[in-house]
């Protein structure tokens, strides 16, 4: 019989050597699923954007469905991006403290970007 | 010492198409992240009024801005297509060698078709 070196507690937790379960992987999949329809809408919207004047842009952002779709895109893309960039940093940066610092800084920047983009969208929708 | 097999050495190993697409998925992911920051800047400028938005509009309507927008859109569409493939892989299908080649071609064709559709719609 193969010897099992895992402690009973380790086996019960079932988190393996990384100390994490499938949470990261699962969140990446759920956000990607939501982004399947959203990113097609976003691709067309962004491609159209340069053609519009200021008044057209503001009017477009303020249209109710556009506001909600844009906010959904901002929320889900920043979440998805922060999960993805975390993996990329973990794969290529091998000095522990640099890796941790970089992941934290990039995630904080992304949270700030999401907040700025979301706030701007809401402000345009409510104030114009 | 016994000769041991080496893992693919990037400088001398010709990457198969699947590997090229895989690294492209990562690169496009980073490109999209950069574009997201650009989108936030555009939105913030638009929120500040017509005067603040004027330079953004000039940039977007110039060749550099227009080029960046299209690089971003194509990166998004590629990432979309390869992402769908990842979701299919997650169900356990599409790992046979023939399937890999066929899906790679399909994915590139779908990216081109979607880019055409977006161009047509915009």
User: Can you tell me the CATH class of chain A?
Assistant: Mainly Alpha
- Shape assignment of chain A: elongated
Tell me, briefly, the overall form of chain B: elongated
Name of the CATH homologous superfamily of chain B: Fumarate reductase/succinate dehydrogenase, transmembrane subunit
Low-confidence stretches of chain B: none
Radius of gyration of chain B: 20 Å
Determine the most extensive contact between two protein chains. Answer: A-B, 39 and 40 residues
Can you tell me the CATH topology of chain B? Answer: 3 helical TM bundles of succinate and fumarate reductases
State which percent range the strand residues of chain A make up.
Answer: under 5%
Counted up, domains of chain B total: 1
Number of strands of chain B: 0
CATH-level-2 architecture of chain B: Up-down Bundle
How many beta-strand segments of chain A? 0
Query: How is the CATH topology of chain A named?
Result: 3 helical TM bundles of succinate and fumarate reductases
Please identify the structural class of chain B as seen in this structure.
Answer: mainly alpha
Poorly predicted parts of chain A: none
Number of helices of chain A: 5
Query: What's the helix-strand series of chain A?
Result: HHHHH
Question: Which CATH architecture of chain A would you pick?
Answer: Up-down Bundle
CA distance, first residue to last residue of chain A: 71 Å
């Amino acid at each position: 019989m193969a010897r099992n070196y895992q402690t009973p507690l380790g086996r019960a937790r079932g988190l393996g050597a990384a100390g994490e379960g499938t949470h990261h992987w699962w969140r990446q999949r759920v956000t990607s699923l939501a982004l399947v329809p959203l990113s097609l809408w976003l691709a067309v919207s962004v491609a159209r954007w340069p053609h519009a004047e200021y008044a057209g842009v503001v009017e477009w952002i303020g249209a109710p469905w556009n506001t909600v779709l844009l906010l959904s895109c901002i929320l889900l893309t920043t979440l998805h991006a922060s999960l993805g960039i975390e993996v990329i940093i973990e794969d290529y940066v091998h000095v522990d403290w640099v890796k941790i610092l970089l992941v934290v800084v990039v995630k904080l920047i992304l949270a700030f970007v999401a907040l700025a983009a979301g706030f701007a969208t809401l402000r345009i929708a409510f104030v114009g | 010492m016994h000769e041991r097999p080496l893992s693919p050495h990037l400088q001398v190993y010709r990457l198969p198409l699947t590997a090229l697409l895989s690294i492209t998925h990562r690169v496009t992911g980073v490109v999209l992240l950069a574009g997201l920051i650009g989108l936030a800047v555009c939105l913030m400028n638009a929120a500040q009024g017509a005067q603040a938005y004027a330079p953004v509009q000039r940039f977007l309507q110039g060749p550099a801005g227009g080029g960046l927008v299209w690089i971003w859109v194509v990166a998004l569409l590629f990432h979309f297509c390869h992402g769908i493939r990842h979701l299919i892989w997650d169900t356990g299908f599409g790992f046979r060698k023939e399937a890999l080649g066929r899906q790679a071609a399909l994915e590139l064709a779908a990216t081109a078709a979607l880019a055409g559709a977006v161009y047509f719609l915009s």
